[in-house]
Amino acid sequence: MFKIKHAFLILPVLLANPLHAESFGSCDLELHVSGFSPSTCTKSKLPLDHAGDVAGNVELAIRKFPVQDVDKRRGQIWLIHGGPGEPGAGFYPLIDVFREAFAGFDIIVPDHRGTGESTRLCEVEESIESEAGYAMANSEWGSCIGSLFTNSARTKAFTITNAAHDLAALIEQYREPGEVYVYAVSYGTQLTLRLMQVAEPKLDGIILDGLVPPESEPKWDLSYRTAIVDGVGRELLNNQRIERFQDLLSSDVQVWHDVLGSTDIRLFMAALLSFPDLRDRIPAIIDDLAVGQTRSLSETMIALNEAHKNLMLYPQSVPSLPLVMLISNSENNSRRGLTAEIVAEEAKDALFVSPLPGLLVNASAPLYDRDENFGRLPKRLPRTLIIHGSLDPNTPYEGAKVHAELLSQAGNVNFTTVIGGAHFLPMVAPECFIHVTSMFMSDVEVPEFCDSLSDN
Q1: What's the pTM value of the predicted model, to 2 decimals?
Q2: Could you say which of 318, 345, 374 is where a domain stops?
Q3: In a domain, 325, yes or no
Q4: Is pLDDT at 363 greater than 50 in this prediction?
Q5: Of 95, 119, 348, 352, which sits with the fewest C-beta atoms within 10 Å of its C-beta?
């Protein structure tokens, strides 16, 4: 299966396999999607720490959507979600999109460690039986944080590198005849690139959607997210509207208060950037607020809440906030001394503000140190497609282009810009996503651009 010169790279992963891997069977939550046989599920036990320094195991949940027509089956596509903290259930509402993009492929959706139905950081507080189910109730945070510190060795094993070893082991355990591809979005692209560093599994290709910037470039890490969000938001506004919004923000009268309450309107406007149909309303909202009208703001707030609701259709859809806190602060924050005063100062002139820098202040978790893999590149990549929205507010477009240039040293890397695309292209630009990825899967040259703003 593997070339001899790669055998020693793969050996640790093979040795890390559990004593047994359960076969796919019935699921606790049944999902039926057109074009697929009923989904099946399994769980696999893997080491808590693949280096062997910390004892214990994690249990990882996987769901498979098998193709119905086995005669047209080509292989497997593994879907790796972002966050960190997003479970595989975040893909379920879009399985029809993936079915078109990856025709002929069984779709395999794992919950990486700490998310969904896999082992959680706070096992009691994040269990389905707890007060808020998989979510975190306010009353549960104290005991959750206490457990993170009490068993800090276990907490510090929930690293990107261990999650990458998990994924390598799962791909080998559940590999079936045919081609094997990996699709990843956002943080999932960081996890997949770490996978290609530490294990080099045999893959026919990878698709990176919303590629994270290079780890070696701290100017794009999470602590600077407000600058990234503000830049994207300002692209939507002409000079007149920028001045109009600035006047609104400097006014003593907050005309939006009756709709948003104490919420910073700049946070609200930034949230709209992730949904192109709502993003397009921003200029009109500013114009209405400038004349004291709040109807468009109110209607858009209702639509934003509905959009978020549609992403949380299943009990396990809730992201793991403890995992977000741990990995974001440990690996993707170059400024551990960040203070609330610094965050406020850097945001004072922004029109669009991200909540992430504020969440990095005084992290309530025992953080771990970046390991030797951080900031490095895979030595080899299979055929790779990077597809990225030009108006992505979460993973900066310029950072993705720089990263793509570096990755091209490791293999055949293709880059498609989705004009007007935001983050998570299967959701925000499904036509472009299906068009480009299906070409890639057919080994057809992909276009340099796809315009999500046109009618095609």
Answers
A1: 0.93
A2: 374
A3: yes
A4: yes
A5: 348
